[in-house]
């Protein structure tokens, strides 16, 4: 036992739950969440084995799921479509009666105030599974792809999308979509750019879910090298200059430093983080084995995004987390 006076005792602020709440710096709430929905043709639901609790949905089931989100205080969903048929261009992507267009109309008819975001990319729609049009050598054609992205964004806006979110990492995609939307009269529709998206192994389960794995090769010529962070700021800067309204960093948990760097470099921009399928699958698998407490782990991980500087979190845990936070 020593008898010196200890002036600084950080534990004073941790003594009771009330004191801890008063000293708390960050909070996570249902209105931070964006809930992803996978829509496909046909009826009912198809479970996704690598993403327990997440299903491929019919249009009617997508409405059911969107309603659950809305009733739990989750203000937004992001839609991914699985087309009836795939082709080299991905024609259903901008078809008036494409699966995403149908889902938006149905969801907005039922829940006009829910924010409907659409993922704008080619990979789920093309028969080769790449995020752009290809030349005869199999290389992604950047500038030719921009026109398809713009047409798709306009088609989503016509169906009633509130925000479009291009995820293909094509150079100039934000500018092309902004031009396309404006020319079609959608000057009010914001763009949430997947500005900083890495070529990540953590997308594995999503590619089952959305049936969008590349049939050959990989995405390293357009998605970023996981080793880079300066380049992330350059990508974000270009998207801001092209007119992006929101920035996104993806994946999330292995890239919290990138979220922090983006937050500090762009204090004026709303910033989203994508807590991707592989991050979800890891926690679900560990929890299913009783190796982790799912509820505590999920809420801690989600809080981590807020601490890193994200405003919004795209997460498959959205409904569970919103329930736990009530
Ligand atoms: C592309 C897209 C992908 C994800 C979101 N949009 C897959 C990819 O780039 O390969 C991944 C999301 C996740 O893993 O949860 N349309």
Keywords, please?
11 helices, TIM Barrel, single chain, two-stranded antiparallel ribbon, alpha/beta, 10-stranded mixed β-sheet, 326 residues
Could you describe the 3D structure shown?
- This protein has one domain: Aldolase class I (TIM Barrel), CATH 3.20.20.
- The protein contains eleven helices and twelve strands.
- Strands 1, 2, 3, 4, 5, 8, 9, 10, 11 and 12 form a ten-stranded mixed beta sheet that branches.
- Helix 3 runs parallel beside helix 4, helix 4 crosses helix 5 and helix 8 packs parallel to helix 10.
- It starts with 16 loop residues before the first helix and ends with a helix.
- Ligand PBG binds next to helix 6.
Please tell me the CATH architecture by its name.
Answer: Alpha-Beta Barrel
What summary fits the major beta sheet?
Answer: 10 strands, mixed
**Total domain count:** 1
Q: Within the CATH hierarchy, at the fold level, what is the topology? A: TIM Barrel
The CATH class: Alpha Beta
For the record, what is the CATH homologous superfamily label? Aldolase class I
**What does the average pLDDT come to?**
97
Structural class assignment:
alpha/beta
State the low-pLDDT regions, or none.
none
